[in-house]
Amino acid sequence: MEEHFESSEKVRDFVIGMSDGLTVPFALAAGLSGAVDQTSIIITAGLAEIAAGSIAMGLGGYLAGQTEIEHYDSEEQREYDEVKNKHEIEIQETKEIFAEYGVSEELQERIAREMAKNPKKWVDFMMRFELGLERPDKNRAHQSAFIIALSYVIGGMIPLSAYFFAPTAQDGLIYSTIITVICLVIFGLVKSKLTGQPLLKGALRVTLIGVVAAAAAFGIAKLIV
């Protein structure tokens, strides 16, 4: 029996939340470290950003999931209307789908007419093979919002945690960089493993993005101050 990865949507949400959670607060903390020396300011700003970022990211995930559901429902209703009011046109479109798979014209006709006897199954078939749409989970929007927001918080607390124990912002930046780079590498490896991408390439890409963002923020802060 073949094994296939069946949680791609949840993994995608986790990746979105975690990657932004690791990168954005890390860049913010690095930028503030170039401008101030009090860790309390960085911690306060970092916590505020994590709270706002997780809400914004979660809301974005919810709206995206809800839009996907509404789009599917709208297209499904349109297909029901078409199989009822444009019956022969839909029969022809069904035949064309089977024609693409090399089915003979005679068999196309027989299959299409047989499918038309069950409108629900027929619509499900057309949604998948004509429009390329899979029925989304009705809980998709809420699950997406929760996973993205939670993973953002977890990711954001990793670079910020170093400042809770560091005496100065500069020390916090050093510890934060070490911790975050290690976590970025691990996250990149896990992400690549789950998505079937080259491990080293995936890890380097994720790590490089986070480091460049933090370095840019720190450099800009130093230039301004």
Please give a quick description of this structure:
The chain contains eight helices and no strands. With about 220 residues, it is an all-alpha fold.
Largest sheet: none
Could you tell me the radius of gyration in angstroms?
25 Å
- The count of helical stretches stands at 8
Number of strands: 0
The mean pLDDT is 81
Beta-strand proportion = under 5%
Structural class: mainly alpha
For the record, the count of structural domains works out to 2
The rough form would be described as elongated
Q: Detail the poorly predicted runs.
A: 1-6
End-to-end separation? 62 Å
Residues in helix, %: over 70%
Structure description:
The protein is built from 8 helices and no strands. It is mainly alpha-helical and 225 residues long. It folds into 2 domains: 128 residues, no CATH class; 56 residues, no CATH class. Helix 2 packs antiparallel against helix 6. The chain starts with 7 loop residues before the first helix and ends with a helix.
Topology:
Layout: H1 8-33, H2 39-85, H3 87-99, H4 105-115, H5 119-129, H6 140-161, H7 169-195, H8 199-224
Helix pairs in contact: 1-2, 1-6, 1-7, 1-8, 2-3, 2-5, 2-6, 3-4, 6-7, 7-8
